[in-house]
Amino acid sequence: DGEQIKTLTESMDGRLLNAQPTDEEREVWNQVNSVLQDSDSILSGLQAYKGAGQEIRDAIQNPNDMTLQEKAWNAVCPLVIKLKTFYDFSTRLEEALKSLLESLTCPPLTPTQHLEREQALAKQFAEILHFTLRFDELKMRIPAIQNDFSYYRRTISRNRLNNMNLDIENQVNNEMANKMSLFYAEATPMLKTLSNATTNFVTENKTLPLDNTTDCLSTMASVCKVMLETPEYSSRFSSNETLLFCMRVMVGVIILYDHVHPNGAFNKSSKIDMKGCIKVLKDQPADNVEGLLNALKFTTKHLNDESTPKNIRAMLQ
């Protein structure tokens, strides 16, 4: 298996970064590409997110000052529309992930053969994971999001009593607000979306052997690990970004594997060398990997199982 991984790593090294879709891949590739094209604007929108903390505080401290109430409401509404854009994107990402999983796991090819033959789709899968971890790392640092959103919901329910005309409710009605509320309550909302999507994919495709999915994920984790820990590959990384890309993809596939494999990623029977993967992360500057280690701690399902070796748990303490 080690040999296979080494061959796969060599075939992906370099080529993966500019893989072009073959005719067989094109239809799915186009569908996923139309989603990925928007990922940068979603990230820059999140990065630029400035909450309405001050306006909200002023409004709460001066409940009878209508000018301040209005000011807070007018500050929060465009932010809620922005948050809805992010949420809508998560549902598009979910669809894209399902299409990729279908392509990368279908019989009769083995996961390794799929990844070798469909490098453009494998690259898109990696890009989705890279985006997802990047989004969640940013979101974790913006407590204003939940604060703004809960203010919005409180105000809406209060104003409903006063029969105020709320145009924004056409865009974010009660049902949508409930969904968004659950989404943003998660520490890592995009990862949670993808984990659920992968779990649903496995449950819905009863005839597809589970190994097809878990082996695809564990193989990708191994390829990333080999690239990161082998100087002859990692020294070729043109930038810190490529390094981070590889690390985020590795962590992303580990989390998905942990959600869909009945025993998870951490126990002795796992096909992922968790000790090796965590070590690779720990060898990096702490700033680069803090979000990734947190994702492994908080978004996995089996870390705290009895079957997780103590030394692995200790590494993530």
From TrEMBL:
Q: Which family does it belong to?
A: Belongs to the CYRI family.
One GO CC annotation, please?
membrane
* Organism field: Nothobranchius furzeri (Turquoise killifish)
Q: Where is the CYRIA/CYRIB Rac1 binding domain?
A: 18-313
Give the record's keywords alphabetically: Lipoprotein, Membrane
What Pfam families does the database record attribute to this sequence?
A: CYRIA-B_Rac1-bd (PF07159)
| Molecular function terms, GO-annotated | small GTPase binding
Q: Where in the cell is it found?
A: Membrane
UniProt protein name: Family with sequence similarity 49 member A
Tell me yes or no: is Iron among this UniProt entry's keywords.
no
> How does the entry describe its membrane topology?
Lipid-anchor
One GO term (biological process): regulation of actin filament polymerization
Would I find Membrane among this entry's keywords?
A: yes
